[in-house]
Structure formats: C-alpha cells, structure tokens
Amino acid sequence: MSTAESTTTTADAQAFLRDFRSLSVIGETPGHGVDRQAATAADAQARAWFTSLAAQYGFRTEVDRTGNVFALLEWTPGAPYVLVGSHLDSQPTAGKYDGAYGVAAALHAGRRLAESTVPGEEPKYNLAVVDWFNEEGCRFAPSMMGSSVYTGKLPVEEALAIQDKQGTTVAQALEAIGHLGTGTGPTAAAYAEIHIEQGRSLEDTGITIGLVHSCWAAAKYSVTVHGEQAHTGSAVIADRKDALLGASMLVVLLRETAQAFSGAVLHTSVGQLDVYPNSPVVVPSRVDLVMDLRSADEEVLAAAQKLLHEGITRIESDANVTIDVQQSHAWGLNPYQPAGVDLARECADKLELSHAPVFTLAGHDSINMKDIVPTVMLFVPSVDGISHNEREFTHDDDACAGVDMLTEVVARLCRGELDGAK
Length: 422
Ligand code: GLV
Ligand code: MN
Ligand code: MN
Hints:
By secondary structure, this protein is an alpha/beta fold. 48% of the residues are buried. It has helices at residues 11-24, 41-56, 100-116, 145-150, 156-161, 170-176, 201-205, 243-259, 298-319, 338-350, 365-369, 396-414; strands at 60-63, 69-73, 81-86, 126-131, 188-196, 209-215, 217-226, 230-231, 266-276, 282-283, 286-295, 322-331, 355-360, 375-380. Helix 10 (338-350) packs across helix 12 (396-414). The longest helix has 22 residues, at 298-319. The protein is 35% helix and 22% strand. The protein is globular, with a radius of gyration of 23 Å. The chain folds into two domains: 3-216 and 334-414, Aminopeptidase (3-Layer(aba) Sandwich); 217-331, 2-Layer Sandwich (Alpha-Beta Plaits), CATH 3.30.70.360. Glyoxylic acid binds next to loops.
C-alpha cells in the first residue's frame, strides 16, 4: 500500500469491509473458507446477500436466463450499461476472496458512483453490477458459464441442459433456488472486474494493483479411461485392465509434460478424478478425469498437447486400457485492450497506488467479456499466492485500495473514456 488516501479507516473502506465480512460467513466451512458451489443453498444465500444490499444501495435487480444476477442503476433510459462484477460461487473448500471480493468491490464502486453523481451531470452509460453464474465450473462444467452464455460463446439451451454428478441440470438447479430468470441481461458498453491475483508477483514486488494485460492460454480435457472390472485379489496381473492404473499414469504424464519445458512455462494438473465402482476389492473398470494445461506460450501449449497424445497412446498399451479424450474448454493467449490497461494505469497514478502489468493465469469472466466490449481487469495482491484454498487471504488495505481503484475505473468507463478501444 502506497497511499494515505486508501486506508481502511475511511467511511467507504469501513462500509466495504463490513459488507465483505457479512458475505464471507455465507457457506463458511469449518476451516474458515467457504463452500458455495453454483446454485446450491449457500450460493442462493450469497445471491440474496447481493440483491438485498443492491436494493439498499438503490439498484434494481434482475436475473437472466442463465442465472446471471444484474444490479442496475439507470441514469439515462435506453443507454447501454457499463458492467462491473465477478462471481459469488466457489470451489468446494475455497477461500473467501476468489470472485466474492470482486462482486463486493463492484457493489461498493457502484454505490459510491451513485452517491457522487450530481443531477444533470449523469454519465453517458448506465451501470450494472453483475454476479456471473457458475464461474468456477466445479458442480457444472465448463467454468465461466454465465459469461459464456452472455457473450454468445455457449448456447443457452446447451448450458441449461448440463448436469451435475447427481443428474440435476443447470435449469433444474437454478429453478430450485428461484434464480432461473428470463431475458439476456442489459446491453454492455464496457466491462471491469477486480480479483485477487491468485499468484505471488504483486506480493513479491510490493505492488498494490495489477493491470492485467493478457491471459495465459488454457486447454482442458474430459478424459475417460476404460478398463475391465475384476477381483483385486484373484485376477492375474497380466490379465488386468486396470482403469485406475491408466489414470494414475496419466496424472504422472501430465507432471512430466510440464517438466519437459524449462522455465516453468507450462502448468498442468488433473484436478478431478472419479473412479468406478470405487470399491475396496474391485479393479476399477472406469475412471473419469479432467486435465488442465496452461501456458503463456501457445506454441508450448501445442507442443505439450502433442507430447500428451503420444504419451496417452503409450499408456493405453502399457496399462492395457483405452482412453477417450475430449477437449472440454479452451481459451487462447489473448490480450486485453491496451487502451484499457492505459486507462487503469492513469487511474492508479491519480490515486497514487503502485501498479504493474501482469498476466492472469486463472480464468475470469473478463476473458469472455473482453472479446465483446472494452474491458479492464485488475488484481490486488494475494498473500503467499494461495488460492482455491481456505487459507486464501488479502490484506484489508489492499482490498480497500482495490475498491478505490475500481471506483475510479468504472467512473471513467461510465463517461465513455474507453469507447472504441480495440
Ligand atoms: C477458472 O475458471 C479457471 O479455469 O481458471
Ligand atoms: Mn475467480
Ligand atoms: Mn476460482
């Protein structure tokens, strides 16, 4: 933190911290993180937190056909909206900041803009604070679902028909929490989002604001390893078609693939694995898993995918299994509009907040939004870079500085300062 203006003692900062704390206890886990998977009771409670506070701050709320919640402030009837937000859903044992910080910050940026707008001097664009549905993609894959539908990348019928492990569809789950809305949401003129970094670069360099200029490319695959069920005691080893052995070799192959490239330019993991029938004395007949590969270099990603496919053919033969691989989600190494990064830099300079350009390695709804409208993506530091973990933490000073920063950015976007940015 480098400025005296953005301390946690201002009334704005205290109001933000009070509201953020009231959000942080929704879906709280015993380890003091949160579990608010999409369209669960805890997600519904977080959405109620959002709509009731938004109403208190003078916004009208509406829910679109994929459960995105918009809190609208209409200064100029008929004008498009600057959207600002993030997501309230979480991974199963998650931290309190991922996504939630960005929604709370957006609500407070909106509240502050509403309070400071003088009649007769309304901005060019209206304002919508948004809670995107199912950014995490853990209960229902793929991730970034609400913004994918909003930006036309995922057909709504397809999204609504996706099932969780119990066979509940997105439509049924949204209906059950009373959040299956209608319509396509407000028309966007621009988008802004703030998020914790989920990495260590800002903390390591003592910088308060990250100006996100590009995202790492990502490729995610749904994989099924097919074997044959057998008795773990009696089946002859040479006869076995052990799906879990094949899956385990795949997990190791992914790590070896990352290590085949020097300089840590490739990140790989299996994050989810379901074993069937998952019973003590049974050689598994099937394993479903999800592979995730990311790099800042699309050539590295392509070379890694080639290595992976060669390795998969080897595993099929070595483990006596067959492996089906389907790409489930991917995005390219895309820049955010440079004019948006410049605008954010000017805002940080004005507020005397230290800043640096950064990549995002994680996915965000802004990755979708930047493809349809001028977009600004901001980071605040994450202590030790910890994320998707109950110990995720960002200092109050940094969180409050981020709200000040977002308020300034959104004010400028509402004035049309990023119009025409490519
Ligand atoms: C988030 O959605 C991610 O895949 O990083
Ligand atoms: Mn997030
Ligand atoms: Mn996340």
